[in-house]
Fold this sequence. Notes:
Strands 1-2 form a two-stranded antiparallel ribbon. The chain is 65% helix and 2% strand. Mean pLDDT is 82; it is low at 1-6, 103-108 and 335-340. The longest helix is centred in the first third of the chain and has 28 residues, at 75-102. The protein has 16 helices and 2 strands. It has 3 domains: 7-107; 116-210; 222-367, Four Helix Bundle (Hemerythrin (Met), subunit A) (Up-down Bundle), CATH 1.20.120.330. It has helices at residues 7-21, 32-53, 59-66, 75-102, 116-129, 133-143, 154-163, 172-185, 193-206, 220-223, 227-235, 239-251, 256-277, 288-299, 309-332, 347-367; strands at 209-212, 216-219.
Amino acid sequence: MTTDSGGPRINRIQETITAMQSFRFCGPSDDLDEISAVTLGYGHLLIQLQRAATPLLPDAVARRLNTLAVEPNDLYAAYRARAEVEALIPDIEDAISIQETEHDPEQATTPEPLPVAVCSIIGDVLGSTVYHHKTLESMFYQAGAVEEVPAGNCVTKCQTWLRRLHNEVQDPKMVLGKVIEEFMEVDCYGPTQDEGRTRIREALARYGMSYGQSGLIQDTRIAVSTKTLLSQFQEKRLDSVQIEFERALQHAVADPAAAITAASSMIESVCKVYLEDRGIPLPARQDIGHLWKAVSNDVGFDPGSKEDNDVRKVLSGLISVVTGIGALRTHAGSAHGRGRRKYKLEPRHARLAIHASQTVVAFLLETTEVPTA
Length: 373
């Protein structure tokens, strides 16, 4: 169902709530005509509120609102409806606030443009190698570009298109990766292809990026800091942990929600490995919080068990980090269905979760010697 989710609907909801709050009720002993007027009037306002607010409300709140009804002359039903509406108003106002934020142009995030030098060099490499205009255009459209084809020769066309990608799509790096995927992975572009690949890699590296398999543009600011941890995963044969870690890195830019989910799963995986290798029963609830608590109790990470106040603060911080990552995964990650509230996740949020998870896992591995398989 299509709804006018912007200003007119919100104004109608607010006007209806104001009218309901100021509505004059009568008493059970009043004249029947007065009772009839009150129940019909309030019932009409209730129906208006239900029709206008339901599309914007979380499912549970919408169900509560739509169970209300006021029959003619049933004054006690009107009393009950008034009490329920008053209780629901804070939830309705929260939904309105979220809707206004999502439709506020000042709140919209503009994707970061690709570096000019990256666009210039990659455009030159592709445009000098792929001579056919239709082939170039097909490469861009299949990668996700949506606007009209730029004018100019093949090199100019590529460079212009790359420079304006941030005005066309939400993730310019994802489109860039798909544009160059075949060139980087399939040997079919002649004797200058290797030189072109080198130029592309060097241009990306200059701006903290690298090309990964399947058209993935990775942020090397993460990759550089993870080599030691990855080597530990390989040395200790922590395959399940490594899989989640690599998944987090791969999705940090293209799918921050999936990266946050993987970062949380990485902590869960290392906790499960620790408990299983020591014959410690897994907790009944195998979420990140309960798994970390079980590990902490065995390792001695309980802040209350430490005499040094600074150490207690650090260990308390670890608990906050773990529960925070778990909460972010629940509310904004890709592992659970999402409600009406939308989280505007960006790569920086994913990097925060990844770095935090990396710190937790590294500290656990350095504090204890997880047995090798």
